[in-house]
Every structure is written in structure tokens, then in C-alpha cells.
Amino acid sequence: MPHDDAVWTKPTAAVRHVRVKETVRILVVGGGYVGMYTALRLQKRLKHEIRSGEAEIVVVEPRPYMTYQPFLPEAAAGAVSPRHVVVPLRRVLPGCRLLVGEVRRIDHARRTATVSTPATEETGGEDLSLPYDLLVLAPGSVPRTLPVPGLAEHGIGFKTVEEAIGLRNHVLEQLDIASSTRDPAVREAALTFVFVGGGYAGVEALAELEDMARYACRYHPAITPDDMHWILVEATDRVLPEVGGEMGRYVLSELRGRNVDVRLETRLVSCEDRLVVLSDGSRLPARTLVWTAGVKAHPVLESTDLPRDARGRLRCTAALRVQGTDDAWAAGDAAAVPDLTAAGPAAPGRHGPGPGTGPAGECAPNAQHARRQARTLADNIVAHLRGTPQKEYRHRYAGSVASLGVHKGVAHVYGRKVKGRPAWLIHRGYHLSRMPTFNRKVRVLAEWTLAGLFKREIVPLGSLEHPRAEFEAQVRRGEGPGGGAGT
After folding, report:
1. Third-level CATH fold of 151-293+400-453
2. Whose CA is closest to 133, among 10, 20, 9, 27?
3. b/e string for 387-417 if b means 16 or more Cβ within 10 A?
4. Helix, strand, or coil here: 251?
5. Taking the model in full, what pTM does it have?
6. Domain parsing of the chain, residue ranges
7. Going by CATH, does the domain composed of 24-62+101-142+296-386 fall within 2.130.10.120?
8. Helix (H), strand (E) at residue 417
9. Interval 315-353: pLDDT, tens
């Protein structure tokens, strides 16, 4: 242990708080669903110990906020402000110490994490060595990419709020390009939008952005909705497996009814030089390629001495403890947690209320599990510290919901199947209720209300991604002969 004289004693019936000789540090790696909710509950349940200096909670996260990913499609479509789909960690975790940085390695045998911070990257100094007593691993996941030629140069991800806003600006800029060119090849490529991946992220992002672009066409007289070509590429034989076969077929018919070209059992072969080549032989000039073909465990797990499964996730018990350890826990996308309520394997969900079971009877990597697991995980840490029995994680399947654009959606909740506007309302109601903090709930609800009263905002602000570009160009122009700093 890094703190050799740190001792947690089992409380008597009369004393329910922890007695220590030195501060016990709980390190939470990741500030997403699991990380934030675990730290939130720990700071509540260990309030006395934190105030007295007996316990310290350290959260390490590359960004000082948690992103509520189910609202990314609406943020991309402009229905919700990007500021309101993120939750500032410093505000919601006042009882914790937030360290903005990225964990590079974890030596659990020595109870030490190596952390790279913005300061160490800026100065080129050595990474920090952060000792800990108890470990919570919740780094989440990263996009699962394949070695597709041209993907790194031309592909756009859809996992962060920055990517969502960048995609919105990009789509609107393509409409500007198409309406201002006389070159038919440029116009065709600008109006072709390819999305790879038919899960939650791909279907919802395409549906919301297609809705937005269709609306924006009224301000581009040279473009009609029929001029745009929206393509969804999915390697399996169905879309949205999370909502079940019947509802998945409804989603397919709904998308095709909006002239979305859905290619099932098809893979992306190449996208070099903005030419999308598919496994069915199609060759499509396209200036927009969005990659949403699944996720994988965070690569930091490869730099630990903890046990992992074949998919790179941490092997965990039903109590969310990493197998073979007494003081390391994990949950969410990074953990392979057995599903004790599973009746059989089902396709895993990506976010939102999805199926309860993933492959081989494991909990699916979705937000429904992440939030519930965080509560159990935090309670088990407290139980470990106080010497009381820990609980196994069990859940009750709530259902699946998905938005297909304004006033359109599907829902399969508690055995009931709902389509259209009612499903869209259920989708919004569910995610609003799960949005962290009352502040964010009110802001999102206010934006939805205003969106119903006023017209959409369709102004692209792509220059925000490179705010110094114009200034740098002006500086370069003034560096010729005779240029100077004076007047």
C-alpha cells in the first residue's frame, strides 16, 4: 500500500464511520457515466470521512466534464446546445479532487498510476506518479476502427460533443458548397452522406442530421431533399438490433421511406480520395463519411497488470470487483460483468436504455447499466472499507428507445412496442429524466420548448474549429517586403 499506516477498521454497531491513521485515497479513472456517478455517490456516502481528511477521492479524466452521449444526435442537429449535453465535473463533484489528465499506466501491484497532464505535455516533463489505495477503473471505450484505406484522413467519428458539432457544421457547409458550384461531380460528392454502422449512434445521428438537412434545403433554392443521397452501411442483416426484430424492421422501412439508402450485409472497403468503395461493388463519391461501427475497451487497460478477457475488458465478478483483487473495481464499457438476470444472450446496446444482456451472458455496454453499476460499485467500496458484506449487481431490464428525428422514434419498454411521435416523446422523457443535475434538465427542457416556438438554426460555424486561421492568414499577408509592427 502507498500509505503503509493507513488502516480501515471494521465498525462496531455503535460506530458506523471509518477510523484511519492516514488518508485513504480512492482513485477513479474516468469521468464518464460510471466514473462520475461512482464519485458522486462516494462523496455522499463518505461525506464525514472526506471532511475529516480520512478519505480522499481523486478523479482522473482527460476532459473536465462528462458527456451525456444519448443527446449527441440532437446536439448535432441543433435541437440542444452542446454546452447543455455536458456536465462540469468540478461543479457536481465538489468533494472530490479532479485531475485533468490521462492515465498512461497502472501498476496495481505497487498501487501506482502514471498520469499525463496538460502541464507535463506542454513542458515535456515527466508524467506524474499517483499512488492510491483503492482503484475504480471506468475509462469507458473508444471507437472500434478497422484498417480501411482513407478512413483516418476522411472519416468523422461520433462519440464526443466536439465531433457532433463538427459534423453539424460539416453537413451544413456541404449544402453551401453544393448550392454554389457548377461542377456536377463536386455537387454530387457534397450531397452524398455515408454513415457506417447501424446501431444507436449511426441510426440516430443519420436520422437527426437528415431531418436538419431536409429543413435547411428551404434556404437553398438550388437544392431539394431529393438531391441529397443519405446512405447507411451495416455489416449485419438488420439495423438497431437493440429494439428487437419487429421494431428494427419498422426502423428500416421508416428510413427507406425517407429515401435513405440502407445497405445491409455490406462493409466499407475504402474511402481514399473521397471515393467510398463498398463490399457490394458500389463506388460513391462522397465528402462526408461518418464512422459509428461500434466501440472497444479503452487502450489504457492494455497498460495494466489486471486480468482481461479476449475482448480486452477487465474480468469482473458480479460484485464489480476485478477478479483476483480485493481493492480494484470496474464497470461500464471497460468491464466484463456477468449478468445474473440473463435468460440468454442478446445483442448489446450502445447507449440509452438497451438490452440487459450482452454476449455470453454479460451486461451490455450501455448507459442503463453504467448508471446502475456505478451505484452498486460505490456501495461496495464503502462496504469494503467498513467491513460489511458487498452486494452483487442485478438489474431489471427497462427497455429500448431510439429517436429517428423530430416527432419520430421507436420504443420497446416493459414489453410494449411504441412507434412514431409517442415513442419520440418517450425517448425524450426518459433521457431528460436521466440527464445529470437539475440545472441541465431545466436547460434542455427550455431549449426543446423554444425549438417548438421558433425556427431551426441552420448557420454553420465551422470556423470555430480553427479560430486563429483568419488571423494567421492576415499575418502571413503582412509579412512581405515593407511589412512591420508599427504604423
Report:
1. FAD/NAD(P)-binding domain (3.50.50)
2. 27
3. eeebeebebebbbbbbbbbbebbbbbbeeee
4. helix
5. 0.85
6. 24-62+101-142+296-386, 151-293+400-453
7. no
8. strand 416-419
9. 999 999 999 998 999 999 999 999 888 654 433 333 343
